[in-house]
Amino acid sequence: MSTPADSALDTTAQADAHWWRQAAVYQIYPRSFSDSNGDGLGDLNGITSKVQYLKDLGVDAVWLSPFYPSALADGGYDVDDYRNVDPRLGTLEDFDAMAAALHEAGIKVIVDIVPNHTSDRHAWFQEALASPKGSAARRRYIFRDGLGENGELPPNEWTSIFGGPAWERVTEPDGTPGQWYFHLFAKEQPDLDWDNPEVHEDFLKTLRFWSDRGADGFRVDVAHALKKDMDAELPSLELLHRADLFHNGEHPLWDRDEVHTIYAEWRKVFNEYNPPRTAVAEAWVHADRRARYASPEGLGQAFNFDLLKADFDAAQFRTIISKNLAEAAATGASSTWVFSNHDVVRHATRYGLPKGSGREEGAGADGKDWLLEGGDPSQVDAERGLRRAKAATLLMLALPGSAYLYQGEELGLQEVGQIADEDRQDPTFFRNKGVEVGRDGCRVPLPWEPQGTSFGFGSNGSHLPQPAWFADYAASVQAADAGSTLSFYRRALKLRHELRAAEALGWQDSADDDVLHFVRPGGWHVVANFGTAPVVLPEGEVLLASAEVDGGKLPGEATAWVRVAG
Question: What positions carry a catalytic annotation?
């Protein structure tokens, strides 16, 4: 016989099981967050030292980009060992201490999982290199014989995401030129063969390993690429890396229907835990295909990058929001929203690109093109960019669903655009020099103090150079300033917890095409002014605005939250 106390416990457990549906998740790029031992590289103990900062910020969870042993051929996404910690970043015991500290602060832990490929230093791949053609070790990966009289040509003309051929030839154990292996990304990242049951079983073991150590969920890297048809032919090479143009699940490399059998297996593992572990897919697919990754029978959520790619435009924002909320309602998933992450130019910079650049409304897709084409970072209108970024973020934080924030955006950081070639680390820059500017500009270590060799990041410099202007953006400086961007984020995230209710939104008509106005349960009105002329706010208590409200009028390029009585 159940008691009222039992019912209360059941209700609490059910609520905890759905914590992710409207969570504010803070992405940490560990190597650039905080350095505890002065080696210039951020580490797990550095994260532990900043738990109070994260708690004061008001986030519900942290997502940790890879912290595994790695040669850093791709910023840690080349994994040597999926069930260990890079010694430069700490130990498994350090992970346990970090997870415990975050949980004590009420913050969930999301671990990045990289299932498409290992590193070329992984024990499996080293075994494959030492094994003969056709061996069980090689069948874990995608090995093929080459073309030509002596196999000297790659199996096909497919290219890597990072440029150049997608095939690399190996030297056989007897010293002769041998087979070729497939790599969608860097040659140091050989793709796994997900038709092999051994690969399935090993990743289920990895998911349990981190879940048992306190991981509450997983972010799944390149979730749409695991299943492949290596014998298929494409109409043209231009379509090789365009999953968004295929709606039928028949692209040879991307978004194949059978990938969802993998995530059905993973869901069974997630559901072994109480509360169930969560997951979110990084799947750059057509919007009509995204819902399958977010299915309750699969990963549960999928990243929605539509706002990230949109111009700063009211009509575009409304269309994207309405479409994604409708998709979420139809599938039972919750929406996800994001403006910045470790792969794109920071949105405070994208929104401040100079007029006449052709991308001043939203930076095209992610701002990389403008920087690559010789854009001068000093010409970015940082004030305008930050004003728009705060307005967009406040709008995002009012939406139903999960909001993903990237480390440093709460400080209003701009992209670090001017990095000397010899200081860059991103393989996309070196493999595609002149084509890709690289992602280092958003991965520069954070400034915690206005002085020191690395602005408080560590005691002895930082692995990527920090610009002098970081001093003005330091967290300690902003924490003491009620008008700072950090204080704005703290206030917004605190209010967001009060705003949470049913995942519903009602649009209000506006006479101005540059204004979005919607209502959330509890009398919350959200008004976003994308234009330049002030607009009148509804009568009520202005809880927060991204710019100063004067006489009940919201200035241009700003957002406000208003609570209306009754």
Answer: 221, 272
Phi first, then psi, for residue 558 (nearest 5°) are -150, 160
User: Which 3 state secondary structure label does DSSP give 372?
Assistant: helix
Distance between CA atoms of 50 and 475, rounded to whole angstroms? 11
205 pLDDT exceeds 90?
yes
Name the pLDDT band for 360 (thresholds 50, 70, 90).
very low
Q: CB of 429 within 8 A of CB of 449? A: no
Q: What DSSP character marks residue 534? A: -
pLDDT one-digit tens code per residue, 79-122? 999 999 999 999 999 999 999 999 999 999 999 999 999 999 99
Closest by CA position to 562, among listed 523, 510, 530: 523
Q: Give all strands (DSSP E) within 65-166, no chain letters.
A: 108-113, 143-144
Nearest in space to 178 (alpha carbons), one of 130, 118, 139, 233: 130
Strand partners, 54: none
Name the packing angle between helices 485-499 and 382-397 (round to 10°).
Answer: 10
Amino acid occupying residue 191: D
Interior/surface letters 188-200, b for 16+ CB within 10 angstroms, e for the rest = bbbbbbbeeeebb
Q: Using one digit for the tens of pLDDT, what is the confidence trace for 493-520?
A: 999 999 988 898 999 998 899 999 999 9
Q: CB under 8 Å to 255, separation ≥6 — which residues?
A: 224, 243, 246, 249, 283, 285, 286, 289
The model's pLDDT over 440-470, given as tens digits with 9 standing for 90+, comes to 889 999 999 999 999 999 999 999 999 999 9
Beta bridge partners of 62: 26, 109
Q: Residue 325 in contact with residue 291, Cβ under 8 Å? A: no
N-to-C CA span, the chain: 41
Helix (H, G, I), strand (E, B) or coil at 66: coil
Structure tokens at 316: 């575009």
Q: With left for phi above 0 and alpha for psi between -120 and 50, is residue 145 left, alpha or beta?
A: beta
Neighbour-count burial of 17, counting CB atoms closer than 10 A to its CB (0-12 exposed, 13-18 middle, 19+ buried): middle
How many CA atoms, within 13 angstroms, populate the side-chain half-sphere of residue 32? Answer: 25
